[in-house]
């Protein structure tokens, strides 16, 4: 494969391309890497490659012409990749895709970036190496070159090592050990010394699954996990973030049909479905709040039927879900119960289909690891303004940019819990 790198700092690549496997692969002709400096194609006597931005602003912008001339001079540019924080995230999947190309050209930006017309003139794939900003594309280009090169046939001495690595089967890698057998009291796991290859393979698979669940659970969704893997994962202890989370379904004060603040009636379907969803995500408790004593009595008799009565005997799954239900007069009672159960008051997070919200699900997921959280949902036309005002945070709405986002509260609970807990808890 030929890789051409366009960079204003060719010396950046001197050492990394001349050591280890990379140097050997280049010497054997597995990989032909060249670095071209667009400054060599500048046409003025100062060899200018940048200029100030139109419209003003800080920094300089790389001019399109020196880059275009350099690209046009290449006999075999192949697929053109532009290192950019706006690009497609670099991944093992992209590395595999690129490894099948005959040639690649990597374009490294500097300063504030490159004149936007460059991307209009050439069929460019932008690639980002992460959600951070580097001084230039060179460090990113190196990552890309290395990730792609080691997938080329003959790059590594023993091809198998490439296949076993992290991400190649969608899972993170199992731990490795080498001599000595014991170091500072820590022994190599006995199974690795057993000589039993089937057991070693099974242990490694389980270690990969355990590491992935702990460190990057979102990878499991795309990984090639089998039924036996799922059985193993189900039995693993996990960070049960849902144990720190309670859901409240508020029936007063909420906005009613006339957009006035009032009270709604409890509904059987909401209670069933919100309890089932909450149980599925490992939520600690579901509170239904209503100031109406007869409504509370109704909800309690419904729960009793499913938890301890005839319903629960016929449908134990339903019983398990309805066990989460607590019926209380108002949010103050929920707060008090949670403060007692957790030993500290919860962070109260209200939800609304309107507005921008004060916090994202990702941030609340982070907080859940450290403190109890009460997630408050409204019935009717949503929570009354005073509930939103008194909450510590308001969650960013689901689909805030869409022209229609009127979800039933049961669906809103399901979507929100998935965003907060996904398969982590
Ligand atoms: C200082 S950066 C320009 C940042 C740009 N003004 C912005 O705010 O997005 C200069 C160059 O570094 C490269 N670069 C910076 N961060 C990167 C990243 N995360 N992934 C890939 N390339 C990156 C790009 O080639 C970029 O043109």
From TrEMBL:
- Residue sites binding S-adenosyl-L-methionine per the record: 109, 129-134
What Gene3D superfamilies does the database record attribute to this sequence? 3.40.1280.10, tRNA(m1g37)methyltransferase, domain 2
Which compartment or compartments is the protein found in?
Cytoplasm
- What residues does the tRNA (guanine-N(1)-)-methyltransferase C-terminal domain cover? 244-421
Membrane spanning residue stretches: none
According to its UniProt entry, the protein's GO biological process terms are: tRNA N1-guanine methylation
The chain positions of domain tRNA methyltransferase TRMD/TRM10-type read 1-221
Alphabetically, the GO molecular function entries are: tRNA (guanine(37)-N1)-methyltransferase activity
Q: Which EC class does it fall in? A: transferase
Entry EC no(s) = 2.1.1.228
Sorted keywords for this record are: Cytoplasm, Methyltransferase, S-adenosyl-L-methionine, Transferase, tRNA processing
| Organism domain of life | Bacteria
Record's catalysed reaction(s): guanosine(37) in tRNA + S-adenosyl-L-methionine = N(1)-methylguanosine(37) in tRNA + S-adenosyl-L-homocysteine + H(+)
The text of the family note is: Belongs to the RNA methyltransferase TrmD family.
State its role. Answer: Specifically methylates guanosine-37 in various tRNAs.
Which PANTHER family did the record assign? Answer: TRNA (GUANINE-N(1)-)-METHYLTRANSFERASE
State how it assembles.
Answer: Homodimer.
| Name assigned to this protein | tRNA (guanine-N(1)-)-methyltransferase
> Source taxonomy lineage?
Bacteria, Pseudomonadati, Thermodesulfobacteriota, Desulfovibrionia, Desulfovibrionales
């Amino acid at each position: 494969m030929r890789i051409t790198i366009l960079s204003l700092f060719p010396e950046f690549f001197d050492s990394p391309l001349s050591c280890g496997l990379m140097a050997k692969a280049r010497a054997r002709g597995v990989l032909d890497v060249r670095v071209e400096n667009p400054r060599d194609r500048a046409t003025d006597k100062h060899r200018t490659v940048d200029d100030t931005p139109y419209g003003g602003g800080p920094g300089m912008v790389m001019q399109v012409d020196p880059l275009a001339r350099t690209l046009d001079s290449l006999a075999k540019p192949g697929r053109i990749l532009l290192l950019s924080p706006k690009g497609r995230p670099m991944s093992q999947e992209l590395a595999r895709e690129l490894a099948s190309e005959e040639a690649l050209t990597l374009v490294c930006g500097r300063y504030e970036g490159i004149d936007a017309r460059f991307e209009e003139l050439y069929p460019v794939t932008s690639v980002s190496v992460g959600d951070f900003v580097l001084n230039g594309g060179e460090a990113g280009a190196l990552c890309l070159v290395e990730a792609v090169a080691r997938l080329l046939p003959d790059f590594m001495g023993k091809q198998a090592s490439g296949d076993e690595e992290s991400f190649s089967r969608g899972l993170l890698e199992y731990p490795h050990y080498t001599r000595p057998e014991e170091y500072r009291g820590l022994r190599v796991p006995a199974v690795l010394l057993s000589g039993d290859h089937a057991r070693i393979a099974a242990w490694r698979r389980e270690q990969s699954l355990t590491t992935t669940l702990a460190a990057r659970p979102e990878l499991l969704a795309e990984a090639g996990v089998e039924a036996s893997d799922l059985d193993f994962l189900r039995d693993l202890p996990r960070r049960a973030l849902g144990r720190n989370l309670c859901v409240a379904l508020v029936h007063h004060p909420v906005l009613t049909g006339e957009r006035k603040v009032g009270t709604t009636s409890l509904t059987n379907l909401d209670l069933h479905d919100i309890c089932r969803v909450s149980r599925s995500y490992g939520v600690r408790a579901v509170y239904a709040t209503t100031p109406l004593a007869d409504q509370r009595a109704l909800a309690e008799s419904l729960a009793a039927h499913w938890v301890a009565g005839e319903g629960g005997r016929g449908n134990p799954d339903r019983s398990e879900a309805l066990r989460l239900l607590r019926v209380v007069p108002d949010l103050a009672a929920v707060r008090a119960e949670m403060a007692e159960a957790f030993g500290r008051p919860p962070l109260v997070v209200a939800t609304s289909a309107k507005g921008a919200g004060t916090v994202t699900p990702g941030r609340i997921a982070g907080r859940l690891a450290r403190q109890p959280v009460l997630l408050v949902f409204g019935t009717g036309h949503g929570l009354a303004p005073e509930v939103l005002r008194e909450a510590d945070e308001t969650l960013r709405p689901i689909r805030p940019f869409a022209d229609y986002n009127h979800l039933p509260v049961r669906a809103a609970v399901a979507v929100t819990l998935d965003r907060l807990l996904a398969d982590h808890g």
